[in-house]
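ligand=3-methylcatechol
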Amino acid sequence: PPLSPTESTPKPLYDVAITEQVIRATGPKANPRLAQIMPSLVRHLHDFAREVSLTVAEWEAAIEFLNKCGKMSDDRRNETQLLCDILGLESLVDDISSKLLATSSSETPSAILGPFYRHNAPLLPNGSSIIRGLNPSVPWYQKAVEDSAFITGRVLSSNGQPIEGAVVDVWHSAPNGLYEQQDESQPDMNFRGRFETDKDGHYAFYCLRPVPYPIPDDGPAGQLLALLDRHPYRPGHIHFIVAAPGFRTLTTQLYDDRDEYLTNDAVFAVKDELVVRFGPREGDPQARWSLAYDFVLGQS
Ligand code: MBD
Ligand code: FE
C-alpha cells in the first residue's frame, strides 16, 4: 500500500550516525575485498532507506520476498538470479566485467548467462542438429519446420586468426517458449549442444530461429513485474558460451531481428552488435533459414 510520508510531507531527520557506526565496526582482519566494498553497500542501503522513508512493514515484506526467492531456487530454477535479471543487475555486472577484462575493441560483446544453462550438453559433430526427437505429433512441429535454421561461422582471435578446437556451447528454448528443463514433454538436452571448431575455426549446426517468450513469471519475480506493470517477455535469442585455451570465455546471446521485444527486453540484455538477420536457405530439406556469425574472443 502507498505510505506516508509522501514527497510533500517534510521528512524528520533520520539517523545518519548509524551508517558510519556500521562501517567503522569492520575489523582489521576483515576480508580485503569485503572491507573495500561493504562501506559502499551499507551507505547505499542506508541512503535508500532514508530517501524513501522505508517502514518496518515494507522492510518485512522485502525480507519475506527475498526468502521466497531463495526457497524457490534449485538446480532447475534460480529465482534470485531472475530477480537480479529483471532489475538489470545481471546485465550491469556483465557489462562491468566485460569492460574490465577486455583486451581489444573487436571482441564479440558479451551478454548474460541467464538461468537456463546446463553443463555437459552433448558434444556433436559440426553440421549436426541440436533438435531432438522432433516428429509430427509434437504440438509445435509445424512451427519448428517453418523456423528450421542452419548456423555457421568461425571463432577468431581479435587479430582475425581462426581458432581451432574452440568449443561453441549453444542452447535455446523450444517454439513453445520453454527450455527443455522447464518442459516435461521435451527430450533431455533438447536444443542444446557443443561443437568444436575445425582447423579453419569453423563451427556449424542446425537449430531453430528463436521465438520471444515470457520469463517464468509464476514466482516472486513475476509478482514484482506485475506490481510494476511490466511485461515478462524476452526477445527471441540463442545463447552461446564460446571457449578456447588461451582466450577469455565468451558468454553471449544472438537476437533475431524480426522480434518485437528487441527494444523492451524484460531483462535488459540486448546489444545492437548481437542482433542478427536470418536469410532464406535454398535447397536444404533440413533448414529454411540460415545465418553466418563469427565470434571474436579476447586474450585471457
Ligand atoms: C532467459 O531465458 C534468459 O536468457 C535470461 C537472461 C533471463 C531469464 C530467462
Ligand atoms: Fe534465455
